[in-house]
Amino acid sequence: MSDDELKKLKSEVVRLGKINAALMKRVEGNLSKKQDAFSLFEGNILLEKQVKERTNMLEKLTEELVGEKNKLGQLIKALPGDVIIFNKDFDIKQFVKGKFSKQPNSIFVKNLLDSFDKEFSIKIKKAVKKSSGTETFATFEHLHHSKDNQEIFYYCGISYFDEDHYVLYLQENTEQYLQEKVIRDQEIQLVQASRLSALGEMAGGVAHEINTPLGAILLAAGQLKKTLSSGEAVDLEKAERFTDLIINTVDRVGNIVKSLRQVSRDAASDNLEPCSLSEIIEDSLGLCRERFRAQGINLEVEGSTDVLVMAKRIQLSQVILNLLNNSFYVAKNNEDGWIKLRCEENKDYYRIYVIDCGKGIEDSILEKIFQPFFTTKDIGEGTGLGMSVSQQIVRDHKSELQYMLVDGHTAFYFDVQRSVEAVIAS
Fold first, then answer.
1. What value, to the nearest 5°, has the Cα angle with vertex 156 and ends 152 and 159?
2. I want to staple 127 with a disulfide (CB 3.0 to 4.6 A). Which of 138, 245, 257, 421 is the partner?
3. pLDDT in tens, 275-303
4. Rounded to 5 degrees, what are φ and ψ at 152?
């Protein structure tokens, strides 16, 4: 082989080597592309699997949410009252009628405030303000008068829903309201019956309390007339003594009548207000002093009474009168009968005791003593209302009428709250 042929052969080998290298590089590139495509394919399969799993999960959660929503809807519809969602302008956005709702849907117009009276508007605005932006559930009660003048009683609750909405729960309780109203009216009648019963039991003493001073007035007036008609010089000192006796006795009778009017007045609408404890006690004592005196019963008042307390004056006088009246029946059968009305001062209240000479009350009687119509007095002497009504009145004063022994003697006591100005200025 010639040199030229050898050179050509070497050159061809080099060229073929380059071609081979280029082919190998291309093959390697193609293999790499195939591997990338496989990896992408494998990744797509994995992603598809994950998407399916998440889709199934979301479908399951959606089914659960739908189920919970249906349950919530059924629960809301099962509520006795209506549920109303409204915005800050009180426009009704959603209304769900309660299961036992008796009111027609026509009662609700577009705006909640226009659906009820002015008083309701004031109450719901206050409730919204109270519950706004908080977890507070503001409640109020409302007595609505319909267009046909029927009374409809509602229990209402307001709760915060979101920045722009509130939820109103509205439950109509007219039947219960009317039943409670009947009970309240009956309780008022019982209180009045008890008061009149106590006054009836004191009637003999009141008559004697008035007749005695009237007799003194008659005697003094007669003596004064005799002195003036004798033609003799008038003894001015004696005449002045007679006129002073008449004036003082008239004042005494006036106080008795005042006490009688106070205790007999209907105080059902009275509110707790600052009252003089001494005046409350005097209202009661003015009706029974002479009765106790006539029976030889020693009546004492212990402790300071020149204070102001938060009370319903007439009703609290009735409690004291009832307790004194009960103690009278014990003391009158005792040779040395006595009754004490004691006032004790504490930090925030005054404790009032009525103590008598009795030696205590049997357990069998104590169990029933506050029951209406229970009495240990003879027929015609008691109605059995005094203690039950007194307990009710004392509870209205945020206390409890309780029994105890004081130095071995029968006692009942209750507390009455101080007024802000506890001591009466002298």
1. 160
2. 138
3. 999 989 988 887 778 778 878 899 999 99
4. -125, 120
